[in-house]
Give the backbone structure.
Amino acid sequence: QVQLRESGGGLVQAGGSLRLSCATSDHIFSVYNMGWWRQAPGKVREFVAAISRNGEEAHVTNTLQDRFSIYRDSAENTVYLQMFDLKPEDTAVYYCTLDRMEGRSWGQGTQVTVSS
């Protein structure tokens, strides 16, 4: 079973920054594409960003491209979501994902709350 260990969420004021981390075991980290999704209260879960297994291809959803970025550190077996200029509408539970042929694995999620 894939284990995804998320961290970095918290409470931040509007305009602030956070960096979310998602760590997994080294034997799978370099094999699969990974990503981030989020779910705000009362809304459907939405795609945020994805990165290829070697880190050469990264994509952030269009509406967040100017404030969010995704990257991975092979030495740490960790994928990061860097978020700048956070807004109250960014408040959500953020989930790390890992895509295998068997399907997508999800982390437990980390709460991000942005106060106005």
